[in-house]
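User: I'm putting together a teaching handout on how multi-component assemblies are represented. Below are the sequence lines for each component of a complex, exactly as they appear in our records. Could you produce the 3D structure of the whole assembly as structure tokens, so the students can see both representations side by side? Please keep the chain order the same as the input.
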Amino acid sequence: MFEQKKLVVSHPPFWHNGNRLTQRSYHIMLAALPAVLVGFKTYGMPAVGVVCLSIASAILWELGFNKVAKQPVTIGDGSAALTGLLLAMLFPATMPWWAVITGTFLAIVIGKHIFGGIGSNAFNPVALAVAILMVSWKHLFDFDGMLVNYDLQFTALYPIAAAKHFGAQAAASFNLWDLAIGWQTGGIGTACGLGLLLGGLYLMLRGFIRWEICLSFMAGIYISALLFHLVDPMRFAGPGFHLLAGYTLFGAIFLATEDSSSPVNFIPMLIYGAAGGLMTVLIRNIGNYVDGVILAILVINLVQPLLDKIRPQAIGKVV
Amino acid sequence: MFSKKELKLAYALAICLLVVGVVSYAAFPLKTPEEPNRIMYTVTAGRVLFDHKTHSSETGFGVACLDCHHHPAESDEETKRACADCHTPPAADQKVNQTCLDCHELDEIEDTEVPNTGDAYHGQCIGCHKDFGAGPVECSQCHVM
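Assistant: Of course. Below is the structure of the complete assembly, with chains in the same order as your input.
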């Protein structure tokens, strides 16, 4: 029986609900602030310098590209500022200025505008920029080496690297509550799990990010880390550790959920997130890299068009 | 496309944050402490992160400076030289390391066999760990790739 209530569309003119790209970008930046502020408290003015320079240079790269490509100026949408902030959150507080500027160039020009600008990028620009920097200047993301001059009030050992090199025993020496409140070395804005979760909750409740991707990413991490841990508890760290250490929560909330590079339907979103979580743990536990979040995000970005093929059946049929 | 207000906000953000960023980098760089907190040794066998502060502080292992920075024996600040200052092979045209010649005449120096940095570290670290029955002694317990 044909159901009249489905797909009812009113006549134009339509009413705009007031949501704009600009509003969206600044709300995501607002959600990232708690974790960033914890980073400022831990690392002081050098961290402030990295974040400020990153946001400013990202806006300027976008403005420069707009001018060179003779496009309308798009910095008003706040997307470049957001990219700059998210990128800086992944950096160590002692990131050299030239690496910050190179990183924002990679994210804005290579990651976003080469693909056609906002909404057209196949890969998350932030993840792409960090991946290129990690491969080109590996030492910049060696948090143990980059933060040697900091006298911190907690164990100054990058937890994910410790677990990778010294096994589950090293991971067990980190208290999960300490990891959650940001007492761990790492990126400026990636250490404080509670701050990230607070921001993520706000974004999910306001509808700025899709909870399906975020939660399935975390579930993917949790389940796969648990399985590894059950198989060899001496070698592989537990799921709670994997969830709170490294880039995990940042990746689940701010990277995997990026609109342009993530699927739009329910089942694909769940597969996309869970695959990202699984890939992260695979890279961390048996791969060559210390933290797998960035590369896992790029891999799921790559399979996203394929996942979007799984779509609801069209209503009606061709006779 | 975007309102003037939004564009102005973006320009203001870019200018203000650029100024704050440049000032932070120029005026407030992270200072290298007089006594290192941690030292990352990058060597072929794999990097080693050495927690200098935990070893030297009274609340840590309380190792005296001269236990490691062992020569010369005077305990004033000047004597705390970096290990590699002395434990480095001499130049091809020299019999002894230039650091030795900074304070001694060549004919004063009897022992010209100075262990290289790697041997010195291994002897010092593993020796001490064995003496106290604590701390890593196997390669993979310190060296990570």
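A couple of points students might notice: Chain B has two domains: 1-30, 39-142. The longest strand of chain B covers residues 39-41.
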